[in-house]
Design a protein that fits this description.
Number of domains of chain A: 2
Structural class of chain B: mainly alpha
Oligomer: heterodimer
Shape of chain B: globular
Strand content of chain B: under 5%
CATH architecture of the largest domain in chain A: Alpha-Beta Complex
Number of helices of chain B: 9
Strand content of chain A: 15-25%
Number of strands of chain A: 11
Helix content of chain A: 25-40%
CATH superfamily of the largest domain in chain A: Oxidoreductase, molybdopterin-binding domain
Largest interface: A-B, 48 and 41 residues
CATH class of chain B: Mainly Alpha
Number of helices of chain A: 7
Order of helices and strands of chain B: HEEHHHHHHHH
Distance between the termini of chain B: 26 Å
Largest sheet of chain B: 2 strands, antiparallel
Order of helices and strands of chain A: HHHEEHEEHEEHEEEEEH
Chain lengths: 247, 228
């Protein structure tokens, strides 16, 4: 009986310790460091070539592509835009570029297109395979002209979740990666509403929350500190999710 | 017959002892934060993809707060713990393996010899276990211990690391062959889950056997190394 009390005591002390550590500033710094190591090792192991996310065949497609998070944009403007086939939708390229651009869906469809069948992994654990079509972000950024000192691409969105506008960001390595595309089609058809109509970013080497939907802008910046909560994304600001979601 | 390596002075080498206690902490944290992560999507699938009940082979129960780290549902915080201690666990296993090759621990104590696989020997070992007789003269581990420890060290622990790596999309882009070897991302996730519970079963068995075979001496020896 004494032994059992001892073991229960050790267990309780361990859990209390975990809570204490988990709430501390230094632990937060440590997990950020570990996150950086993961990113470093992923990039190092892929060295000498551009590490690509696996691509699949059409017969591998999931029969239906699950929607998660925002399933629509709950505004009258979006309803009207949806009705009008998004004829007035604009993707603004801004920030540290030589020529800011304002691209319509027709402009986006007129650019060279990439079609890729990839697996989408949600941070929760599920996966779905879909075929995405759209221009490479690298091509759009080339047209705008990337300025020296640009370190991050920030993606702004039309959807608002729990009172905050959705946004995301990635480093320039991911921004100009060949599989990073501005998708306007899923499985050969216009992007469905639940999957982010009319535009969704595909950032194939990271988890699902890094693929913002209802995309309205791409802004190049040198620091994420002054954007929204400063952590580089909606889920990062709101719940402390990892900014580097390649893990 | 091959030369027997010299018998070490201590019962447990320093590297083994450090690894044992580091692992107790890191595996406990990985397991409990893993249960929290499991709560985020309580279904398991085979193959590359899966998201709905009709594709699942298992509906996983929700694990209660007392069994998870942190003690409330937080996928973000649980992932922080998990990917931090994944480093401790993986680097620890690597260092232990190198030190156990260098000090002949694997060769001397863990690898079974052909003669040990005779049914009579296995049966003898099982009978002695059931009699709670854990004395085995001459060799450090008996047959069942060797099999259990080597399966854990060479199969379960590496599988935990490799299936974990497959679930990381950044890692997968660097090493896509690993996903194929393990049968797709959702298969890797299922194997990760199964191996975690096999490790838990090993943990329970390990604790029970330590308690039955003189726990004070066992724990003391795993701290001080034990003597001649």
């Amino acid at each position: 009986m004494k032994r059992r009390n001892f073991l229960v005591g050790i267990g309780a002390a361990f859990l209390a310790g975990c809570k204490e550590v988990g709430d501390s500033k230094w632990f937060e710094a440590l997990v950020d460091t570990a996150e950086g190591w993961h990113r470093g090792i992923h990039r190092t192991l892929g060295v000498g070539r551009i590490a690509m996310a696996p691509e699949y065949e059409r017969e591998d497609l999931s029969p239906f592509f699950r929607g998660n998070g925002s399933l629509t944009v709950d505004t009258d403007e979006y309803r009207a835009a949806l009705e009008a086939g998004f004829s007035d939708w604009k993707l603004e390229i801004s920030g540290m570029v030589d020529t800011p651009l304002s691209l319509s869906l027709d402009d986006i469809r007129a650019l060279p297109q990439r079609t890729q069948i990839t697996r989408h992994d949600c941070v929760e654990g599920w996966s779905a395979i879909g075929e995405w079509t759209g221009p490479q972000l690298s091509h759009i950024l080339e047209l705008a002209g990337v300025q020296d000192g640009a370190k991050f691409a920030v993606f702004t969105c039309a959807d608002n979740l729990n009172g905050q506008d959705y946004y995301e960001s990635c480093d320039m390595d991911d921004a100009v990666h060949p599989q990073t595309i501005v998708a306007h089609q899923l499985n050969g058809e216009a992007l469905p509403e639940r999957n982010g109509a009319p535009l969704r970013l595909r950032l194939e080497r990271q988890l699902g929350y890094k693929h913002p939907k209802y995309l309205t802008g791409v802004q190049l910046v040198s620091s994420l500190d002054d954007i929204a909560g400063g952590k580089g994304g909606y889920w990062e600001d709101r719940s402390g999710y990892q900014w580097y979601a390649g893990i | 017959m091959a030369n027997k390596p010299d018998k070490p002075k201590k019962r447990h080498a320093l590297g083994t002892r450090i690894w044992h206690w580091v692992n107790l902490v890191s595996v406990t944290i990985l397991f409990m934060s893993g249960l929290n992560i499991s709560n985020a999507h309580r279904r398991l699938y085979w193959g590359d993809w899966g998201f709905a009940a009709e594709q699942a082979w298992l509906e996983v129960p929700r694990f209660p707060g007392w069994a998870t780290i942190p003690g409330y549902y937080s996928l973000a915080a649980a992932r922080d713990w998990h990917v931090l201690f994944a480093w401790v666990f993986a680097v620890g296993l690597l260092v232990f393996m190198i030190s156990a090759i260098r000090n002949s621990h694997f060769k001397r104590d863990l690898f079974t010899r052909l003669a040990e696989w005779r049914p009579a020997n296995i049966w003898h070992d099982i009978r002695e276990h059931l009699r709670f007789n854990f004395e085995h003269e001459g060799v450090k581990f008996n047959f069942l211990q060797k099999v259990a420890y080597s399966k854990v060290i060479f199969l379960l622990l590496p599988l935990m690391i490799f299936t974990g790596m497959v679930m990381s999309p950044g890692m997968e882009a660097a090493w896509p062959w690993l996903t194929e070897v393990l049968g797709g991302r959702q298969s890797a996730r299922s194997i990760h889950f199964i191996c975690a519970w096999l490790l838990f079963a090993f943990f329970v068995l390990h604790i029970v056997l330590v308690l039955l075979s003189g726990p004070v001496k066992q724990i003391r020896d795993m701290i001080t190394g034990g003597g001649e």
